[in-house]
Design goal:
The complex is a heterodimer of chains A (195) and B (250). With 195 residues, chain A is an alpha/beta fold. Chain A contains six helices and 13 strands. In chain A, the strands form four sheets. A seven-stranded mixed sheet of chain A has the order 2-1-3-4-13-12-11. In chain A, strand 12 and strand 13 form a beta hairpin. The two termini of chain A are 13 Å apart. Chain B has ten helices and twelve strands. Chain B has helices at 32-42, 56-72, 86-95, 104-108, 111-120, 153-163, 184-193, 207-214, 226-229, 235-244, and strands spanning 5-13, 16-21, 24-31, 47-51, 77-80, 99-102, 125-134, 137-142, 147-152, 167-172, 198-201, 221-224. In chain B, strands 1-4-5-6-7-10-11-12 form an eight-stranded parallel β-barrel, surrounded by seven helices. In chain B, helix 1 runs parallel beside helix 2. Classes of the chains: A alpha/beta (195), B alpha/beta (250). At the A-B interface, helix 1, strand 8, strand 9 and helix 6 of A face helix 2 of B.
């Protein structure tokens, strides 16, 4: 059973729909006992990092998630709040990944939010088993995590090269939305389920 | 670099995808969910579903359909048609839509764009603009092109961006249904003027037209309906031709 953390993090329906399409059993929950009992945990997130941290703190889930020893996947803002801090709302985050999240620097002709399909490279994880370098995935974000030793995939938007995915021990995170990334995204979710 | 997008557009009435020229003589072309699944498998980057129902009861049916689409497909999709309030947008978000597109109601009340973008973010709000060239001006029309508004294409597109729209979907009513190519010069002018993505719609009749609007026309995405619905061109063939023309596609 996979637990999807229910913490008012915007539209999480698309993550639930993606797991339904893969016939993967899941439950949406904020109950610490259910999260502890799950085989894997998904931390979704759309919207604002500071708000997401606040909501997670209010539900008393920050230390619980940091202490998990099973595979955890953060998606988009769910991943950003697993980093050290985010410039968005000057949020102190969980500090699992060794990097900060910053807004894209303004550049002529480079649109922010970074929205649409972009290629990911330097793929270094079981999460990307079966995928080719340069596979396209779907992004929607204005803030991005920098590069660090936890980077397991990179992406370029304008001059900015950022972490498209991160991994530290049992914690995984994707800046992109695997649940909206077609067959490539389904493969990534299947790989996570198979960890 | 963000890839240029290919977007099949599905007009929906009573759960069925329909196609007609200038909204007359509608013909059913298939089931909305099945067609969406097929297009996503063939390599469409995004889908647009437009509700062209007339009545409020049918609108409720459309929301249920949006839930089925969200469950059925694994790529982003936009829904539009008759969205006139923040509540309408919220209802479609809850049903699983990734974006909503506003059109006539935003012309009548431009604050609608500010409200939707303010609450859910610019990435959720697409401003669709229908316009035709009348007396030397690109005049914005509403209600499927049947009514002229007081607005002009370029000033309205700029205002929509300032109000928080995340994308502009411009349909040239002079080109729509003709299959003679897109209004390339207007898309290039919009791309020059705006900082948000521009989606081209109206006039696709061949692969070459789509290549033109994504290169010379500088559009970020090309939308088309009948050429996909009637298998006149296949998405894999289209993507191959775009790659040959050095267009970055998925």
């Amino acid at each position: 059973m996979i637990a999807i953390v229910d913490y008012d993090a915007g539209n999480i329906k698309s993550v639930m729909n993606a797991l339904r399409r893969l016939d993967v059993e899941f439950e949406l929950t904020a109950d610490p006992e259910r999260i502890k009992a799950a085989s894997k945990v998904i931390l979704p997130g759309v919207g604002n990092a500071a708000e997401a941290m606040k909501s997670l703190r209010e539900k008393g889930l920050v230390e619980l998630i940091k202490g998990l020893r099973k595979p955890v996947l953060g998606i988009c803002v769910g991943m950003q709040i697993m980093c050290r801090r985010s410039e968005e709302g000057d949020a102190q985050c969980m500090g699992l990944f060794d990097c900060d999240v910053c807004r894209f620097s303004p550049e002529p002709g480079v649109k922010v939010p970074h929205m649409g399909w972009n290629g990911i490279s330097n793929l270094e994880s079981k999460l990307f088993k079966g995928l080719d370098e340069g596979s396209f995935v779907y992004f929607v974000h204005s803030y991005c995590p920098g590069l660090c030793t936890d980077t397991i995939a990179t992406c370029r938007h304008g001059k900015t090269l950022f972490s498209a995915a991160l991994k530290y021990e049992n914690f995984y995170g994707t800046q992109f939305h695997p649940e909206k990334s077609g067959d490539v995204g389904e493969m990534i979710l299947k790989n996570f389920v198979a960890l | 670099m963000v890839a240029k997008r290919i977007i099949p557009c599905l007009d929906v009435k009573n759960g069925q995808v329909v196609k007609g020229i200038n909204f007359e003589g509608l013909k059913e072309v298939g089931d909305a969910v099945e067609m969406g699944v097929r297009y996503s498998r063939e390599g469409a980057d995004e889908l647009v579903y437009l509700d062209i129902s007339a009545s409020r009861e049918e609108r409720g049916t459309f929301t249920e359909l949006v839930e089925k689409i969200a469950l059925g497909i694994n790529i982003p999709f936009t829904v539009g048609g008759g969205i006139s309030s923040l509540d309408d947008a919220s209802r479609l978000l809850d049903a699983g839509a990734d974006k909503v597109s506003v059109n006539s109601a935003a012309i009548a009340r431009p604050e609608l764009i500010s409200e939707i973008a303010g609450k859910y973010g610019s990435q959720f709000c697409v401003c669709a603009i229908d316009a035709k060239f009348i007396d030397g001006v690109w005049r914005v029309t509403t209600h499927g092109g049947s009514r002229q508004s007081s607005r002009e294409l370029f000033e309205w597109a700029r205002e929509a961006q300032e109000r928080g729209a995340g994308e502009i979907l411009f349909t040239s009513m002079d080109h729509d249904g003709t299959k003679a190519g897109y209004a390339c010069e207007q898309y290039a002018a919009l791309a020059e003027m705006l900082s948000i993505p521009v989606i081209a719609s109206g006039g696709a009749g061949s692969i070459a037209h789509i290549v033109d609007v994504l290169t010379d026309g500088r559009a970020d995405a090309a939308l088309a309906a009948s050429i996909f619905h009637y298998n006149e061109i296949s998405i894999p063939d289209l993507k191959n031709e775009l790659r040959k023309a050095n267009v970055n596609v998925r």
